[in-house]
Amino acid sequence: MNKGTHFIGQPLYGQLINLLDKEKIAKISRKNGGERYIKKFDLWQHLSIMLYAVIKRYDSLREIAGCMLPEARKLAHLGISVMPKRSTLSDANARRPECVFEAVYRDLYERYRKELSSDSRQRRTAKWMKRLQILDSTTITLFSNLIFKGAGRHPKNGKKKGGIKVHAVIQANEGVPCDVKFTSAATNDSFMLAPSHYSRGDIVAMDRAYINYRKFEELTGLGVTYVTKMKKNLTYQTRGDVMYMNRDGLMEYRIQHVTFTKAVADGDDIVHHARIITYIDLSKARPKPVSLLTNDMEMEVEDIVDIYRQRWEIELLFKQIKQNFPLRYFYGESANAIKIQIWVTLIANLLLMVLQSRIKRPWSFSGLATMVRDMLMYYVNAYTFFELPEKDWLKIQDEMAEEPPELTLFPDFFN
């Protein structure tokens, strides 16, 4: 039987987990106490099964335990020697520290970040792109308000749902989080803006939830540029105001040099000098003015606007993760289990982005994730198949066209 032009002696899932370093993972687990009181179900088994479940979008431990059994032989060849019961996986999610999975993700990020980063010389991106970091958060709704406190008021009817807030930082030219923190949904975003984490020359783009004069002044002192959106209720003193008009006499953009002052009870007042840039956003159905706040006094207006628009990348990343991985249902009710599932989701997202970067043919992430999910245990070479998925079908059509007519015993009878 013809096995096809894309046949390979390893399932597609095996090719994905080959991107992981098994020895390094074992070392990380021992270092972070991930193998305490463990007999068989080590970190490699745990991570492999959780990755399988996340990619397949399973919603419960029962579904994981049941649906892995038909693939037991194939999974055994990949080094998965344990078919866990629900209780085994539940205990592992509750007891194994989530910091172990965090360490695995950070190790993978350091290994593949150069491969994921775009080359500004090939894509002709701006010079500041490699210095740009984007900061934002997303909230994942939970079943209860007991583990992670939800934001907002208690509803009149029913119980208030909890939420875990995922704070992330991405390098604009990489597209995957370089730093991740978890808090309850009620935590203010500004805690993630730590000036000490940045170096001179860095650029930070964020939304207006991060406005904090003290931290902005610290960033200015360190030589770090920030770009954010203005709040309407901010008070300031205007030191300079220039409006630029187009040929039709309409405002093109406006530049204001302003000073913010915040009184401090025990200490000197905080004084922060900044620039407000207002431009007309023509991408909306109804063009409207948008005001941006920055501490950079020299950069061109077009660059400031482009920097803020790059912030949309992190919104697309959050959307990508929530649409393609199971974050509506969790495999455990403890804070540790919830964090483990999110870390495994980030690992799965990173592995698929590495696969996407190695394929020359353009694939949307959603399309690639769907194909990988459906073909996860197929013996198909991922790299050749995704380059030319229709190759086998074209070959079959050519063979059918070249087949000679069938011979008959009585040719004259059919004439």
Structure, briefly:
This protein is of the alpha+beta class. The chain is built from 15 helices and nine strands.
Structural descriptors:
15 helices, globular, alpha+beta, 415 residues, 9 strands, 9-stranded mixed sheet, 39% helix, single chain
Verbal overview:
- With 415 residues, the chain is α+β, with helices and mostly antiparallel strands.
- Helix content is 39%, strand content 18%.
- It has a 9-stranded mixed beta sheet with strand order 3-2-1-4-5-9-8-7-6.
- The two termini are 36 Å apart.
Tell me the strand percentage band. 15-25%
Largest sheet: 9 strands, mixed
* Cα shape: globular
- Computed Rg: 27 Å
Structure annotation, total helices: 15
Structural class determined from secondary elements: alpha+beta
Strand neighbour order, sheet with most strands: 3-2-1-4-5-9-8-7-6
Mean pLDDT: 86
> Ends: how far apart?
36 Å
Count of strand segments: 9
Give the helix level as a range of percent: 25-40%
Order of helices and strands: HHHHHHHHEEEEHEEEEEHHHHHH
Low-confidence stretches: none
Question: Could you give the topology of this structure?
Answer:
Layout: H1 12-17, H2 22-31, H3 43-56, H4 61-68, H5 72-77, H6 86-95, H7 98-116, H8 120-123, E1 132-141, E2 163-171, E3 177-184, E4 203-205, H9 213-222, E5 225-229, E6 237-245, E7 251-262, E8 270-281, E9 288-294, H10 301-309, H11 312-324, H12 335-358, H13 365-374, H14 382-387, H15 391-402
Parallel strand pairs: 1-4, 4-5
Antiparallel strand pairs: 1-2, 2-3, 5-9, 6-7, 7-8, 8-9
